Amino acid sequence: METAQFSAVIVVGLLVFFYGGTFLISTRIGKKEENADGYMTAGNNIGFGVSAASMTATWIWAASMYASATSGYTYGISGPIHYGLWGALMILFIYPFGKRIRAVAPKAHTLAEVMYARHGRSSQLMLAGSNVVGSLISLMSNFIAGGVLISLLSPFNFIQGVLCVASGVLLYTLWSGFRASVMTDFVQVVAMLGAVAVIVPFIFFAAGFPAAFETGAANLTPQQGNFFSSEAFMGQGAPYIAAVLAYAIGNQTIAQRLFAVRESLIKPTFITATIGYGGMVIGVGMLGVLALYLGFEPSGGDMNNLIPEMAATYLPSALLALFFIMIVGALSSTADSDLAALSSIMMADVYGRGVAGKERANPKTMLLVGRLTMVVATALAVAFASLQLSILDLLVFVGALWGALVFPVLASFYWEKVTSKAFTTSVLAALAVFLPVRFSWIPVDGVFGYVVDVLAVIGIGVVLGLMVFGFSNLRAAKITGALAMAVSAPFAIGSLHEYATLCGSLVAYSVSTVICWAMSARQGESFDFSVIAERAGNFDDGDAAAATPDGTGEALDGTGEALDVPSPRPAGTDVPDGHEPEPAAPAK
Question: For residue 210, is the peptide bond before it cis, meaning its omega torsion is within 30 degrees of 0?
């Protein structure tokens, strides 16, 4: 079939319309005298409408659409379910842990900053470093998606498309940082949800639905045609369950929104984002299933081309333009979040806590550091995007990598005995085991294969136990984890090591958990969690109202109503510059 293609003038016009509009929004909320804390977390008081839209838009990115469709094309009818459902549920799992994190660190900017207040420099650098890597990969993935889209639908080539998207995102995010990200997310998510509701059904019927599912059934393997496919679960579902839980806990783009939303609105915000993400991503992923039934093959065998080529084949020009805006909006809403996350890490963790120290950090210098970070990160992501790596592989890899951090981070917020040494050692050991298993650097057969299987079974118990702990209590979590290990062991030991992606992630969970627990259980001293709020807080000494989302001195609740913004706590209550946090005296 012939595909529709836009002229250069139309594509430029659509890009100017989208990025010009978002830039105008960002200038309306910007301030001539910018506030460093507002640039990072928008005053910690964003309301439900804006925060829920921002969380949804951040989690729904072009890569998630492309990857969901790839999963449908690869694994059949259950592929998008395994991708979208587990991803949606992981958003839901954020909120119980998020409430605890905000309770102990109400004015923090990054999770790494909280880890500095809890443990010291080493754990802070680990979490900050992993987020720099993760956000750069995420940024690169979104630029890849944009470059593919523009190159397929216009005369521009891939690199030119990447440069257009990168320049547009940087244009409006650089102006007012995180506030620009959350306020433009609201417009973007409304546009995306509306576009999906129109575009996906249209493509289905244009392709001959439902007859296409009857005539094209021969194109599927037995596993692809089985809704309860074990291949789909082991290859997509199970790795993604583990990977996205790690995303939920370790990802600074999510943590930034957790620290920005009004504390009382954490639960409804994440529940709403769960529903929005699941419906949209599963819906777009079904296009991959449709392509599988139709025998549709993306050009060059590149799965990143699947969604744009399906759209170009079956959509008329007007809806193709809407599709173009939908994908650009999806990738931009996450790319700006990555830029805001990277800037906050460099502002708060590198300059604010590391170079200058809390008491001597200059807010104006922090803003300069944040904006320069965005420029450098954009340049690096553009350079890496030229490699055109698989988006789905990148997502699963980063999530598995963060699996090494999940238990040490969560335990640090609940268990007063976790030490800095236990945190650092457990994470490094988990990474040392994860990499050889994930990339098969060491043959996983014989005795070593059984060792990997045992560790993976422990990882299953850890993942399910943490999920139950979030919504219940420690006793229920222990029982769930033990039952999960007992039930899975007979089936997993001896065969689980054949699934390198899944095993790598589970091993990272298990090794970090076992070592962190073993090194902390006999620790005599107990940490006083109340000191975290004193050690992790605002950098600006000015009025907190200057850090509000709309730049007017009033915090918005998503409906336009003004909210009271609490004044910042008194200065001088933080750890002196250049000193590691001292452990609190043992609890009496």
Answer: yes
Quick: pLDDT tens for 294-311. Answer: 998 888 788 878 888 888
Of the candidates 322, 294, 287, the residue with the CA atom closest to the CA atom of residue 214:
294
Q: At what angle do helices 391-414 and 500-520 cross, to 10 degrees?
A: 20
Give this prediction's pTM. 0.78
How many CA atoms lie less than 13 Å away from 153 in the CB half-sphere? Answer: 36
Q: What average pLDDT is seen over the chain?
A: 81
Q: Cα–Cα distance between 57 and 329 in angstroms, integer?
A: 9
The tokens for 430 are 């988990």
pLDDT, one tens digit per residue, over 105-116 is: 888 888 888 998
Provide the CB-side half-sphere exposure for 397 (13 A, CA).
16
Q: Is 70 exceeded by the pLDDT of residue 33?
A: no
Amino acid at 174: L
Residue 74 token pair? 């690869």
Backbone angles phi, psi at 297, to 5 degrees: -120, 125
* Burial grade of 553 (CB within 10 A; 0-12, 13-18, 19 or more): middle
The CB-based long-range contact list for 469-477 (8 Å cut-off, 24+ gap) reads: 470/93, 470/96, 470/97, 471/93, 471/96
Rounded CA-CA distance 262/539 in Å is 19
3-state helix, strand, coil in the chain (%, to 5): 75, 0, 25
Secondary structure class of 54 (helix, strand, coil): helix
Here the tokens at position 119 are 């443990």
- Report pLDDT digits (tens) over 445-475: 778 889 999 999 999 999 999 989 988 899 9
Task: Indicate if the pLDDT at residue 377 is higher than 60.
Answer: yes
Half-sphere exposure in the Cβ direction for 217 (13 Å, CA):
8
